[in-house]
Amino acid sequence: MHVTHLSLADFRSYARVEVPLDPGVTSFVGPNGQGKTNLIEAVGYLATLASHRVSSDAPLVRVGAPRAVVRAAVTQGDRSQLVELELNPGKANRARINRSSQVRPRDVLGIVRTVLFAPEDLALVKGDPGDRRRFMDELITARSPRMAGVRSDYERVLKQRNTLLKSAAMARRHGGAKSGADLSTLDVWDQHLARVGAELLFQRLELISVLQPLADKAYESLAPGGGPLALEYRSSADAAADAGTGVGPDGGTGGPTGREELYARLTAALAGARKQEIERGVTLVGPHRDELVLKLGQLPAKGYASHGESWSYALALRLASYELLRAEGSEPVLVLDDVFAELDARRRERLAELVAPGEQVLVTAAVDDDVPGVLTGARYAVSGGEVARV
Length: 390
Ligand SMILES: Nc1ncnc2c1ncn2[C@@H]1O[C@H](COP(=O)(O)OP(=O)(O)O)[C@@H](O)[C@H]1O
Ligand SMILES: [Mg+2]
Known about the structure:
Blueprint: E1 2-11, E2 14-20, E3 24-29, H1 36-48, E4 68-76, E5 79-87, E6 94-97, E7 114-117, H2 122-126, H3 129-143, H4 147-173, H5 180-222, E8 229-234, H6 236-242, H7 259-280, E9 291-296, E10 299-300, H8 307-328, E11 333-337, H9 345-355, E12 360-365, E13 378-383, E14 386-389
Parallel strand pairs: 3-12, 3-13, 7-11, 11-12
Antiparallel strand pairs: 1-2, 1-4, 4-5, 5-6, 8-9, 9-10, 13-14
Helix pairs in contact: 3-5, 4-5, 4-7, 5-7, 5-8, 6-7
The structure holds adenosine-5'-diphosphate and magnesium ion (MG).
Family: Belongs to the RecF family.
GO cellular component, one term: cytoplasm
Keywords: ATP-binding, Cytoplasm, DNA damage, DNA repair, DNA replication, DNA-binding, Nucleotide-binding, SOS response
């Protein structure tokens, strides 16, 4: 798929901007702070309902404006669609498809598909477990938009269960007897958490099994002979079970595991962790506590890989995401935000060659020289809030 027109109102630094786009490569070039990333951040928002730079919507709305609107015309094969999102910080966002009456924002997921490369990607390798969980969950949602619902259900159940645990922890600390009613409510929330958690866990494990060979191959083409990569999923449920409840898991390795088995494993792990959870007042088991360990050779990349290796790893994960999405559905838009300036000459050249054939590639750079030669295409100069075709 590709975007044929992007239109922003009160988004970030833009009061209004209209950007017609063609398939193939388009680069946005201009000095820092002029609004290049703001443009592609809007494209990414349509694909994920989130920014790759901030976790809330408020900074996306132009200072002083009440709301922002992001609109894109999208073509896939011979079908064209218009998607529109209205961002209302503090209130519900609104969405429309083809100027229809309102739909839920999550109903637009899947129309715009992107794989975004950005300087922030280094956090995939060097950052907290949460950065890698978000990577998995966004990719799961891109593969299967209905997972947006599962993710938000999980967040909701987790929040409510934590509230219950917190009050149980308080009651305990103040010497009050834990009421049986509280604990039976907790049983119900355990089931909800295990049910929704098992679905999320199932999707993550499945994702990792298909992503692993693609990431390994991408790494090999970026840094020949530098691998192999191993993506290891560590489940908090297995850790809790191993910690001596006597529930014997198979360790989470070996063979695909079904949803029912994962449900049973989570339920058992929650039961085993309950005492500690009530002491600490927080949910200690579930996909929100899991870790994706990225290994390069025998060692975890985090803490061991060099800067260049870490970059190659992050790029390999993005390239693998791209291969996966294009193999499973329509080709996503490749977005490269200021990444070439971060890379040495060899990685820069290899990455450029790998992305150049994409159906649509959007590149930002501070200067023309940062855009590799193979990525010649349409050019826009971005400066002082103006986006002008060169
Ligand atoms: N909500 C906002 N309202 C107004 N200006 C904003 C907002 N968010 C960011 N900006 C401005 O946008 C500029 C950064 O734009 P950005 O696209 O990140 O630049 P670059 O061209 O370097 O990628 C900064 O000058 C910043 O002040
Ligand atoms: Mg930028």
